[in-house]
Amino acid sequence: DAGITQSPRHKVTETGTPVTLRCHQTENHRYMYWYRQDPGHGLRLIHYSYGVKDTDKGEVSDGYSVSRSKTEDFLLTLESATSSQTSVYFCAISAGQGLGGNEQFFGPGTRLTVL
Amino acid sequence: DQQVKQNSPSLSVQEGRISILNCDYTNSMFDYFLWYKKYPAEGPTFLISISSIKDKNEDGRFTVFLNKSAKHLSLHIVPSQPGDSAVYFCAASGTQGGSEKLVFGKGTKLTVNP
Q: Of the candidates A96, A105, A106, which has its C-beta nearest B100's C-beta?
């Protein structure tokens, strides 16, 4: 299994509070991603990173920011959590082989509840 | 607008029979397709993939078929086992700009009954 950990695994917070989720990898993969999974929506990309300090927006980036100061760590921040951000968040990594051969490997997920 | 569609939210089959999960895509720039399996409370796990230069890829009990003209792919599981019960996601990517990103369907929940 790819070495990906997420912390915390579960979090309950209140509306308006800041929240930071951490993804840590031991594979030295170039690409890292944050997704959210919601019923009826599948997996939706929030932000991704293609290198240290290089990030870009995904499909549902509003209300989220990310940072990657080291190859192994990718942080997702909710500056002011809202109830609509209650979800399960998955981190993924990829070596990014190009030519379409870019399987992504997922972490175990973080279940976030915003009250 | 959904670029990757899994029109069946759920599928139920008997153990030992074939499971067929379907996926349609709209973006003709997609040329690499993947299937992931997800158990409750776990992250998705990569199952099998296929490049657009092929029309079939097989790995044990799992076979993915690609029909480029119809923009359709399917995952066949034979024989199905109760441990195959999970949500299956179809995903697609393109080699031109953005190949590092995957677009996922909404998933199909497969239940294999003993």
A: A96
> What distance in Å separates the CA atoms of residue B5 and residue A12, rounded to the nearest whole number?
32
Tell me whether A48 touches chain B (CB under 8 Å). yes
- Give B13's contacts (C-beta < 8 A, 6+ positions apart): B19, B80, B110, B111, B112, B113
Average pLDDT of A98-106?
A: 73
Q: What is the dihedral of CA A24, A26, A27, A28, to 10 degrees?
A: 80
- Residue B99: pLDDT over 70: no
Strand ranges across the sheet with A73-78: A4-7, A19-25, A73-78, A64-70
CB contact under 8 A, A100 and B99: yes
User: Cα(A61)–Cα(B75) distance, rounded to whole angstroms?
Assistant: 31
**Contact pairs from chain A to chain B, CB under 8 Å:** 65
Indicate the helix (H) or strand (E) that contains B81: none
Residue B23 near residue B105 (C-beta atoms within 8 A): yes
As a whole number, the mean pLDDT across chain B is: 93
CA separation, residue B96 to residues A2, A54, B25 (Å): 26, 19, 16
